[in-house]
Amino acid sequence: MTLAEISERCHNITSSYLANSNGSAIVEATKEAIQITRQQFLQEVFTRWDPFGDRLSFSYNGGKDCQVLLILYLSCMWEYFVTNIRSSQYSSQYHQFPLQFLPTVYINQAETFGTLENSIESTRIRYFLSVYESPRNQTSMPEAFRNYLDVNSNTEAIIIGIRHTDPFGADLTCIQETDSGWPRFMRVQPLLHWKLANVWSLLLYSNEEICGLYEKGFTSIGGINSTVPNPSLSMKLELGHSTLKNEFEWEIMHAYGKKEASDEVCVSKLSASDERLLQNKGHLDYYPGWYMIDDSLERAGRSRS
Ligand code: ATP
């Protein structure tokens, strides 16, 4: 695989999703969400910052939101590349995908789950991410970004997978400057309008490997000392489970590239230390994270945002 090939694959995933006629309310809403993000990338972001230059970076921490945004970003990069070829006077054989690695920033803030670390590493390889990893617990988030910009001084804008339903996300816009107290760069936020159900729908359909903690009842992943499986997904909890069901059976059964329908979800393996941790804490019997589509409960397993 190359970055060009995985970008083309991501484009095929989103095109295939957009072409499906499943007709469910979640799928239709997700198609709309994809089209908005696509327009934002192609018409607002790439017209200001060439995705093949060095002024745009991607912020990545292995979570579901940045992974779904990464798939959309690569998909749009492929579309941008192909569109440019079509408008060029030279035949397509003279065009090469201009990028081999994607500039990416990962701020290693807190003690993380081994499973998440492993997942970041395998996605780094799969998506050809050139990851700048800040030293763990080095400083505050703004300071860590300042350090990133010191070594990547051409960066003007950073793509972030924040959504309106995240803490402090309600009033954000797609492109805006950082707040005071932060180093100056433009925040690019094309996932703001996505609801939790949209994220799960495209991610599960993509058949791309997702972090294994999500299968164990996690719905949002922070530090190892501040995140547990989402309490409302506990199998021991009697209350409310009449409403808990897998809304994504179709996405899983018909996931992109599956030769025949199956209910298997592509998740990364739990690390041995996380398996022990979940066992020791009695955190074993939880429904998968995608059984939760209530945005207001998404972070119920996190004691710090
Ligand atoms: P989840 O909520 O399931 O953990 P997520 O990590 O993608 O998914 P958030 O925690 O809400 O979502 O973070 C929003 C976005 O902010 C991420 O998608 C990513 O772009 C950026 N981000 C958050 N933490 C970091 C970090 N430590 N390093 C780099 N980027 C980060």
Automatic annotation (TrEMBL):
Pfam families associated with the record: PAPS_reduct
Keyword Transmembrane helix: no
One GO process term, biological-process aspect: FAD biosynthetic process
Organism: Lachancea nothofagi CBS 11611
Record-listed E.C. numbers: 2.7.7.2
Keywords: ATP-binding, FAD, Flavoprotein, FMN, Nucleotide-binding, Nucleotidyltransferase, Transferase
Any one Gene Ontology molecular-function term assigned to this protein's record: FMN adenylyltransferase activity
Lineage of the organism: Eukaryota, Fungi, Dikarya, Ascomycota, Saccharomycotina
Enzyme class: transferase
Top-level lineage group: Eukaryota
Protein's recorded name: FAD synthase
Keyword Iron-sulfur: no
Catalysed reactions, semicolon-separated: FMN + ATP + H(+) = FAD + diphosphate
Pathway: Cofactor biosynthesis; FAD biosynthesis; FAD from FMN: step 1/1
